[in-house]
């Protein structure tokens, strides 16, 4: 049988446009009579605030300044929980929360007006340590516990597993917050079509969901919102949450549009999510031969001020903390916790990237204690076809991990 | 306002520029060369790179008035009018060195600036040649192999 694509090296469809510089990213769209938008963002992590826009409004070239009271529908968005505000109404929960969106005839004027808005903060105690945050003494969102998710995994009996273990290793690992740093900063343009359809053109990973979020915030049916996704300059999970889409839609409808906004690199860093930093407390036990017998882990994922994908990310960490190894006795508790840090969401691996830092170092330490090679201990425990994961999944398809480890070991000449 | 003249991709332009306008803004906003990308605005990412008088420069760190009398090459100047790609562009396509594409125009120009001066670069020299240009997607391996392939094409007298 022959295929057109499978087994062949195919030139990507958008490759030609990209090597010639003709691919259109949202910042490359210029429309007649377009206005420019700039966002005012919070500079403190936790505070009540008031705004005085009167001076900024008087600057020549400023068309309008939008704040929470200008959101026509729900002043809320978020992929799982609607815990983000389109514009904060009274309270900020992190540095970088959006407070206002200035629309002006030029980018320079918009920037000047953003700086002319007076913000008065009444600062509140903030919490930056997720372990502290779990005590709920300082609440990031009123009326809700900071612990927004608890993933619980139980398999076998860990007490028995550890009692039978010849070697046990216990440690705490911490991973850091990471930014996607995609090369194309957020940008977009919005306008209104003759029949009233709101068009938002922005680089996104989630156009169909953006459409719903824009519609809810605008108080219009979804079919009155069109989202156009032009070339996307990298994303890696960082474009799964709303950034400027709703601000642009509000501004385009109120001014007649088109309205364009392009974030600076600095604003991009504060506007989108990060990878969840995790504190991973882990205990691993193995028998004399190096067969794993028990694993106990507690994972605390700091989701910052907003949930974004915290539930899915934390669950994935909880599942993957066993590594790709068969372990008969497992106990995992993984928590997602609000703090006043930058918010965390999707980023490459979605929770599976953090945990190997702990799991695999544990494997190396067990091997060292047993006097066997790091390769040997992995080969003894690796998933193969038919293995059962700690959360009960039977792996029925291709599981070529052992082949892979052997090939790598041969290449490294350490087998 | 100041009136300057400069050559972009072989064509002479006479334009009025504001004192605080960057070469990047002139090329994108005024002349429409949107293949020039803005990634960081501080000369770190290299996405705005263009070739000015034979040297690769970051156009976000050059004021528009400094381009007076200069010859600039942007990505738009590489493809022939009949649509034939420059061998570097062809090599990038064939090797799969293009992913999100935001770094690509400047990366191709970085390769051109290198190969124009050094037609037989070693891997180390290629890595140094593109060291001012960040790519977040590819991991660079395919970009390096594209530049090697492009060198072969150019040394054979173009493809």
TrEMBL record, chain A:
GO terms for molecular function: iron ion binding; oxidoreductase activity. Pfam families: Ald_Xan_dh_C, MoCoBD_1. Residues 20-125 form the Aldehyde oxidase/xanthine dehydrogenase a/b hammerhead domain. Transmembrane segments: none annotated. Signal peptide: none annotated. InterPro entries: Ald_Oxase/Xan_DH_a/b, Ald_Oxase/Xan_DH_a/b_sf, Ald_Oxase/xanthine_DH-like, AldOxase/xan_DH_MoCoBD1, AldOxase/xan_DH_Mopterin-bd_sf. This is Purine hydroxylase alpha subunit apoprotein. It comes from Thermosyntropha lipolytica DSM 11003.
UniProtKB/TrEMBL annotation, chain B:
Residues 2-78 form the 2Fe-2S ferredoxin-type domain. It comes from the Bacteria. Pathway: Alkaloid degradation; nicotine degradation. Keywords: 2Fe-2S, Iron, Iron-sulfur, Metal-binding, Oxidoreductase. The keyword Oxidoreductase applies. The keyword Iron-sulfur applies. One of its GO terms (molecular function) is metal ion binding. It holds the Pfam family Fer2. InterPro entries: 2Fe-2S-bd, 2Fe-2S-bd_dom_sf, 2Fe-2S_ferredoxin-like_sf, 2Fe-2S_ferredoxin-type, 2Fe2S_fd_BS, Beta-grasp_dom_sf, Diverse_Oxidoreductases. This is Purine hydroxylase delta subunit apoprotein.
């Amino acid at each position: 049988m022959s295929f057109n694509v499978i087994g062949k090296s195919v030139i990507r469809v958008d490759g030609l446009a990209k090597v010639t510089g003709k691919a259109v990213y949202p910042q490359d769209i210029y429309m007649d009579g377009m206005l420019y938008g700039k966002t005012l963002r919070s500079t403190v992590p936790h505070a009540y605030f008031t705004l005085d826009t009167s001076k900024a409004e008087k600057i020549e070239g400023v068309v309008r300044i939008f704040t929470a009271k200008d959101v026509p529908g729900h002043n809320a968005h978020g992929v799982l929980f609607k815990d983000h505000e389109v514009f904060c109404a009274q309270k900020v929960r992190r540095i970088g929360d959006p407070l206002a969106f200035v629309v002006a005839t030029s980018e320079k004027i918009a920037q000047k007006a953003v700086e002319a808005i007076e913000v008065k903060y009444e600062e509140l105690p903030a919490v930056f340590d997720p372990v502290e945050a779990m005590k709920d003494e300082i609440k990031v969102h009123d009326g809700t516990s900071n612990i927004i998710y608890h993933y619980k995994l139980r398999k076998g009996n860990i007490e028995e597993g550890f009692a039978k273990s010849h070697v046990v290793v216990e440690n705490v690992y911490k991973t850091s917050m990471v930014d996607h740093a995609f090369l194309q900063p957020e940008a977009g343009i919005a306008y209104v079509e003759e029949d009233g359809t709101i068009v938002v053109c922005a680089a996104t990973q989630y156009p169909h969901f953006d459409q719903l979020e824009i519609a809810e915030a605008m108080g219009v049916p979804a079919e009155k919102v069109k989202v156009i996704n032009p070339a996307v300059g990298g994303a890696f999970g960082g474009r799964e949450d709303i950034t400027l889409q709703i601000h642009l839609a509000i501004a385009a409808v109120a001014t007649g549009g088109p309205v364009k906004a392009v974030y600076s690199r600095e604003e991009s860093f504060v506007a989108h999510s990060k990878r969840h930093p995790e504190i991973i407390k882990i205990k691993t036990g193995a028998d004399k031969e190096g067969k794993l017998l028990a694993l106990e882990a507690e994972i605390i994922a700091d989701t910052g001020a907003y949930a974004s994908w915290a539930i899915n990310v934390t669950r994935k960490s909880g599942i993957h903390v066993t590594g790709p190894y068969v372990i008969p006795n497992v106990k995992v508790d993984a928590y997602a916790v609000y703090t006043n840090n930058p918010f965390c969401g999707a980023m490459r691996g979605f929770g599976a990237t953090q945990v190997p830092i702990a799991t695999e170092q544990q494997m190396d330490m067990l091997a060292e204690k047993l006097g066997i090679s790091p390769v040997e201990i992995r080969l003894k425990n690796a998933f193969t076809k038919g293995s059962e994961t700690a959360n009960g999944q039977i792996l029925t398809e291709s599981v070529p991990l052992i082949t892979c480890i052997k090939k790598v070991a041969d290449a490294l000449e350490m087998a | 306002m100041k009136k300057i003249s400069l050559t972009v991709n072989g064509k002479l332009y006479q334009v009025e520029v504001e004192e605080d306008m960057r070469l990047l803004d002139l090329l994108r906003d005024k002349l429409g060369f949107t293949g020039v990308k803005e990634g960081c605005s501080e000369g770190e990412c290299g996405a705005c790179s263009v070739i000015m008088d034979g040297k690769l420069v970051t156009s976000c760190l050059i004021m528009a008035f400094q381009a007076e009398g200069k010859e600039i090459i942007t990505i738009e100047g590489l493809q022939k009018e009949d649509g034939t790609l420059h061998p570097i562009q062809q090599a990038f396509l064939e090797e799969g060195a293009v992913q999100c594409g935001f770094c690509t125009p400047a990366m191709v120009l970085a390769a051109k600036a290198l190969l124009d001066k050094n037609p037989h670069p070693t891997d180390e020299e290629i890595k140094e040649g593109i060291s001012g240009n960040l790519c977040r997607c590819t991991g660079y391996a395919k970009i390096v192999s594209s530049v090697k392939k492009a060198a072969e094409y150019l040394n054979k007298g173009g493809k």
